[in-house]
């Protein structure tokens, strides 16, 4: 009887462990895999047995490389992971990593991502001097377009998602990344970019008003500035209203979650156990 009970408990334990989907993590700008270890530890502490892939590509200054180059490399990694886990994985990206991760799944028509968690990422773009000074101390938002909307500027990841609301003509003319993955500009991949998003079971967008880096912070929810510097929320922008990448469809089906958490600074989202436990772990079940 004791032997049967032991085997029964073992089987139940293995069933619980196998219920947790593998998690793929993409770090933020100017950091690396080590910066995401707290999330890895919390996942494995609360969900023992979970397989976690914490990518170490494009760490440090290499995170400033062209966004499409990074997406291509990450895409190859995700394909290998999906081959190992055809039943599906959860993809989590922090800061710039959330934007790149979203582009990865959009460019992978048969991806196995069931849930995508974007943790304080500039999904609608970035336009803020405080953010710039972390990387380009001499630049200010007002004139940064003069660098970013050039051939040279588009060799940087930041330039690829710099979205100046006062120079939209130049943004559409020079930016080779953001206006395409957001389907602001049509391309031969427009249908792919939308259909791949619609493969998700759930899209979780997390951000907050005290972030201090993502500017405007509503970009983490696909909200953004208009020409008057007023922030237009996601559901009043064309990307949603025209369902350019499937946000409206996901929302209609109950698959879109916009989560706002006040009082969290940008560098706390992935380094504060209370934040991780309250806004990340609940979506890994």
TrEMBL record:
InterPro entries recorded: AB_hydrolase_fold (IPR029058)
Record Gene3D superfamilies: alpha/beta hydrolase (3.40.50.1820)
SUPFAM superfamilies per record: alpha/beta-Hydrolases
EC number(s) per entry: 3.1.2.2
UniProt-recorded Gene Ontology molecular function terms: palmitoyl hydrolase activity; thiolester hydrolase activity
Taxonomy, superkingdom: Eukaryota
UniProt-listed Pfam families: Palm_thioest
Reactions it catalyzes: S-hexadecanoyl-N-acetylcysteamine + H2O = N-acetylcysteamine + hexadecanoate + H(+)
Keyword Signal carried by entry: yes
Compartment(s): Lysosome
Key words of the record: Glycoprotein, Hydrolase, Lysosome, Signal
Keyword hit for Transferase: no
Gene Ontology CC annotations of this record: lysosome
Major localization class: other
UniProt similarity note: Belongs to the palmitoyl-protein thioesterase family.
Protein task: Catalyzes the cleavage of thioester bonds from S-palmitoyl-CoA or S-palmitoyl-N-acetylcysteamine (unbranched structures) but does not have activity against palmitoylcysteine or palmitoylated proteins, branched structures or bulky head groups. Conversely, hydrolyzes both long and short chain fatty acyl-CoA substrate.
Identification of the protein by name: palmitoyl-CoA hydrolase
Species annotation: Aedes aegypti (Yellowfever mosquito)
């Amino acid at each position: 009887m004791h032997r049967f009970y032991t085997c029964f408990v073992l089987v139940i334990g293995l069933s619980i462990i196998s219920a947790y989907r593998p998690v793929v993590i993409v770090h933020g700008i100017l950091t690396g895999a080590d910066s995401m270890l707290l999330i890895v530890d919390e996942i494995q502490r609360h969900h023992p047995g979970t397989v976690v892939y914490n990518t170490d590509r494009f760490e440090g200054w290499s995170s400033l490389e062209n966004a499409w180059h990074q997406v291509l490399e990450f895409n190859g990694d995700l394909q290998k992971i999906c081959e190992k886990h055809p039943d599906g994985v959860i993809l989590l990206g922090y800061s710039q990593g959330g934007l790149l991760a979203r582009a990865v799944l959009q460019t992978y028509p048969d991806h196995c991502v069931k849930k995508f968690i974007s943790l304080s990422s500039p999904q609608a773009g970035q336009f803020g001097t405080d953010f710039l000074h972390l990387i380009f101390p001499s630049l200010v938002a007002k004139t940064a377009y003069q660098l970013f909307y050039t051939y040279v500027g588009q060799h940087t990841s930041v330039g690829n998602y710099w979205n100046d609301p006062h120079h939209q003509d130049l943004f559409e003319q020079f930016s080779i990344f953001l206006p395409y993955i957001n389907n602001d500009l049509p391309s031969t991949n427009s249908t792919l970019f939308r259909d791949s998003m619609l493969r998700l079971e759930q899209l979780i967008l997390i951000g907050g008003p005290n972030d201090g880096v993502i500017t405007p912070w509503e970009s983490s929810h696909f909200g953004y500035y208009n020409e008057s510097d007023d922030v237009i929320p996601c559901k009043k922008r064309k990307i949603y209203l025209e369902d350019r990448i499937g946000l409206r469809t996901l929302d209609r089906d109950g698959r879109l979650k916009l989560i706002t958490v006040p009082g969290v600074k940008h560098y706390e989202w992935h380094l504060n156990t209370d934040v991780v436990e309250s806004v990340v772990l609940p979506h890994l079940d």
